[in-house]
Backbone:
């Protein structure tokens, strides 16, 4: 019986273990980005803009060109690369600490200018690399090392930022979606949304962003399966998945 | 005869079990306690290869790109 390969490691993934913790969603999102770059023939002409955060380690195992700007300034540096070399495909990869805290100004203005770049925003509701501090996206009541009794929105810790809803009103945004990777269906949906975002950039329509809700089992203090459940039940309740804008029009 | 086949790159596996949640056919499980790969993790084993349908859901969930899936030809790529 003839068998053919339906899933394998992409050639953009170096032949060594990824540097992330077991059960980390970054690996799934990296894999989807790499698969799309390969399938869409964009890999040779791509610059992967890494953030400051766990995914700074992307350059250690991905066979793509990687640029590493200062903390939160990934969209600003991506703007520079895209404007100087408009033929380059720019993937700006950011975490929630990088995008929603220190880099809020950069992402809002890159979106409002309608820069023709694609941002992959991995939201795991915590600062992973620095050891599990509270992030702007940490859910109310969720524990972190800097809010050991849970995030108390009334005690000056503020409310979690819904980035897609925040950016939706900006005119320069062409494609905006939120997905999860807590199950296989979500991972497939993530790939579909990211393909649309990549096509948006290829067509030159403007700024595109896909927010991916992702587990961080180690810093949440959970097992990997418990973390998947947390994303599926708690995070999707506060951050509803779906498309917000397609081709510049609100959905 | 199984419709699909999976091969696990044992030394890349970190034993996070995300793939096991995605497999509806009980094809895969963690190796028994005490067995570890070069990274020191319990790794994934194929325990019921005859049940595999080649749906590739396990590979969709693998954060370490450690699973290769074959399927009987005639169906498109996942």
Residues:
């Amino acid at each position: 019986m003839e068998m053919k390969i339906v899933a394998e490691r992409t050639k953009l993934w170096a032949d060594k273990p990824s540097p992330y913790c077991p059960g980390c969603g970054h690996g799934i999102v990296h894999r989807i980005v790499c698969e799309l770059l390969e399938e869409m023939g964009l890999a040779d002409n791509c610059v992967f803009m890494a953030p400051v955060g766990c995914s700074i380690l992307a350059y250690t195992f991905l066979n793509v060109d990687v640029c590493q700007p200062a903390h939160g300034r990934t969209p600003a540096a991506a703007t520079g690369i895209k404007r100087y070399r408009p033929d380059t495909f720019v993937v700006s990869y950011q975490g929630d600490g990088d995008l929603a805290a220190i880099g809020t100004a950069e992402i809002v203005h890159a979106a409002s200018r309608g820069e023709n770049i694609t941002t992959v925003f991995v939201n795991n509701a915590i600062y992973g690399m620095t050891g599990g501090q509270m992030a702007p996206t940490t859910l109310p009541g969720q524990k972190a090392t800097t809010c050991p009794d849970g995030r108390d929105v009334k005690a000056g810790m503020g409310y979690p930022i819904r980035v897609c809803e925040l950016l939706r009103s900006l005119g320069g945004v062409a494609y905006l979606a939120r997905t999860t990777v807590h199950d296989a269906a979500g991972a497939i949906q993530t790939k579909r949304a990211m393909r649309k975002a990549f096509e948006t950039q290829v067509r030159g329509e403007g700024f595109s962003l896909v927010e991916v809700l992702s587990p961080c089992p180690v810093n949440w203090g959970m097992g990997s399966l418990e973390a998947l459940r947390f994303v599926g039940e708690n995070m999707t309740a506060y951050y509803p998945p779906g498309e917000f804008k397609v081709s510049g029009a609100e959905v | 005869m199984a419709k699909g086949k999976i091969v696990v790159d044992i030394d890349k596996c970190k034993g996070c079990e995300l793939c096991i949640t995605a497999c509806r056919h009980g094809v895969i499980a963690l190796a028994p306690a005490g067995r570890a790969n070069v990274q020191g993790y319990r790794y994934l084993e194929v325990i019921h290869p005859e049940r595999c349908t080649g749906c590739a859901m396990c590979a969709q969930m693998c954060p370490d790109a450690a699973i290769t899936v074959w399927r009987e030809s005639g169906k498109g790529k996942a």
